[in-house]
Each structure stands twice: as structure tokens, then as C-alpha cells.
Amino acid sequence: xxxxxxxxxxxxxxxxxxxxxxxxxxxxxxxxxxxxxxxxxxxxxxxxxxxxxxxxxxxxxxxxxxxxxxxxxxxxxxxxxxxxxxxxxxxxxxxxxxxxxxxxxxxxxxxxxxxxxxxxxxxxxxxxxxxxxxxxxxxxxxxxxxxxxxxxxxxxxxxxxxxxxxxxxxxxxxxxxxxxx
Length: 181
Known about the structure:
It is a single chain. By secondary structure, this protein is an alpha/beta fold. About 35% of the residues lie in helices and about 20% in strands. It has seven helices and six strands. Strands 1-3-4-5-2-6 form a six-stranded mixed sheet, with helices on both faces. The longest helix has 11 residues, at about 35-45. It is globular.
């Protein structure tokens, strides 16, 4: 595990996952569950691959964090956007245990344009572990840029998507009241 954690940005058990692991800006303990959360969790459980789309500051990363916390027994992993050393990722194998369960969190897919070949990484890691993937991307220009990158666009098109809805006026007032802002 030490060799593996020296190569990745984050490798932690889902039960021990903390907000600072996802580098969430303006994290508040209060979480307003979006209506699409249940659908996102179902897609993640059924298909194992999910892309959360939405506007800036719309709660995409926070939803991904909540989804990761809802995957007990998984190791949550984040990789740098320029990572391409897939052969050096070597998940430990423990005798008499099933393959390691890993949840790969890919935040802001536009950071990966021209960088890591995510499809290659998914294949390489999928051979070593039981892999699930959650990605986030802003709707609009960022998503268009991601789709214009040939390899990354094909990868994104293969993911099941959930659109993170905007907060209603009532939800914003409730959130403002809970956070004191």
C-alpha cells in the first residue's frame, strides 16, 4: 500500500473519507441532498461508472463526496491529471480475499484534456481491482472542451450521466439560514 500511495493524490478508505480529501471549497457540515442523488447512487451501484454534470458551485463535487461515503468497503482514489504511468499502479492482493474494491474519483474532467488517458487507466486498473468511477464536469464550455478531445470525449460519452440540478429559491434560503450566510 505504501508504494501505491506514493503515486496517487489520495488513497483512503471510504469510511475514513473527509471533506478535505476532496478539497471541497466552502465545505459546510450541512448537506442539502439533491433530488437526483438517489438516481446517481443507483447508477453507481448498477453500472459502476458515473459522470455528475452541473453548473459551477452547483454541488457536483459534494454529491460525489456523498456518493463515495455511501460505498462502504471501498478505497477512494484520486490521481493527478497528468498521470499516465498505469503500469506502475499495482493494487495489493491479499490471500483469501476478493479483489480490492476501488472508487476512482475524477474531479473536473476538463483538467484532464491532453493529460491522463482515462480510458487506458480504467482498463489497466479494472484488471487488478473491482473498480467504480465517479467523474465531475461543469456543463457548458468545459463539457464541450472535454468532448472535443477525441480520447477524453469518447471516454466521457461512455459514462452514465446525472445532471446536478440548480438549487431552488427555497433551498438557497434554507442553505443560507443553515450556514449563516
